[in-house]
Design a protein that fits this description.
Helix 5 packs antiparallel against helix 6. The chain starts with a helix and ends in a 5-residue tail after the last helix. The chain is mostly helical. A hairpin with a 2-residue loop joins strand 2 and strand 3. The strands form two sheets. Strands 1-3-2 form a three-stranded antiparallel beta sheet, with no helix packed on it. It contains ten helices and five strands.
Length: about 280
């Protein structure tokens, strides 16, 4: 389907980036073209349900807001493109340690697949079909990522490049769009969202941005120490102190697991209020 085509486009982009070292500006723009097949094949609704507590603040506008439903039209499709572009780049930005790229992708994928399985038996046939389609993308992706992680875990025997990180980001983003839970997927991506926002000063060259924003290895202690770079990996070292590369990856994955649990908690809380993400 179109999701697979978009993933293949991102694999090609990742390979080109590994070979030619594409500048960051191009990395942000090119995924938009990869998202076009997904966008062109989208035939579902572009409306969102306003949470009951907020409906009193949303005026009724014919064709735009009716009975607590916002009809967003092209705005919603633009939002879909932004989600896919962000997911495609976010795994690539939070990287640099053995196992961290494949590990975070695997954890997010497992969380999304569990969500799919909880909804494939829904009484709503459209909801069940959407989650089944999403699960059909995630299952083979998780199988391949698990095999990769076994060899990429510290000490790594196989290193992932941009080819995998772009594939992983697009596959997860497309699964969220096809399964109609892109809002929940963004909550699952909370560490990546934080890492991106935290990295903006360096990504925009407001402060110096070296090519590799990684911790430094202390030869005397055998531990990784933080550098003055703005990313989640260095921030964890600042907060919890120096550690081995394996322990640092585990710290990142613990944060990722907590974001998945938070995502399910938010879904449950909003469901109780009558709003489903």
């Amino acid at each position: 389907n179109a999701g697979v085509v978009s993933v293949l486009f991102m694999v090609l982009l990742g390979f080109v980036d590994d070979v030619l070292d594409i500048p960051w500006r191009a990395k942000i723009v090119l995924p938009v073209f990869s998202a076009l097949p997904l966008l062109a094949s989208y035939r579902h609704g572009t409306d969102v349900v306003v949470p009951p507590p907020l409906r009193a603040y949303v005026p009724e506008v014919p064709g735009i807001s009716v009975d607590g439903i916002l009809y967003l039209g092209p705005i919603y499709k633009f939002y879909m493109v932004l989600v896919v572009v962000f997911c495609s780049n976010s795994i690539n930005i939070l990287a640099g340690c053995n196992g961290v790229e494949a590990g975070q992708s695997f954890v997010i994928g497992v969380g999304a697949l569990v969500l799919n399985l909880l909804n494939v038996c829904s009484d709503d046939k459209n909801t069940a079909a959407n989650h089944m389609l999403s699960a059909s993308m995630l299952a083979p992706f998780l199988a391949a990522t698990y095999a990769l992680l076994m060899h990429n875990w510290y000490p790594s025997r196989v290193f992932v490049g941009d080819t995998y990180t772009y594939l992983a980001g697009m596959c997860l983003g497309a699964a969220g769009v096809l399964g109609h839970f892109s809002e929940t997927m963004l909550i699952f991506f909370a560490p990546q969202v934080f890492n991106f926002i935290y990295s903006v000063p360096q990504l925009l060259k407001i402060v110096p941005c070296p090519r590799h924003r990684l911790p430094t290895f202390d030869t005397k202690t055998g531990l990784l120490t933080a550098t003055p770079n703005y990313n989640l990996i260095n921030l964890l070292l600042h907060i919890f102190g120096p550690c081995t590369e394996k322990d640092l990856t585990i710290r990142v994955l613990v944060v990722q697991v907590l974001s998945i649990a938070f995502g399910f908690g938010v879904r449950r809380a909003l469901y109780e209020l009558g709003w489903v993400l």
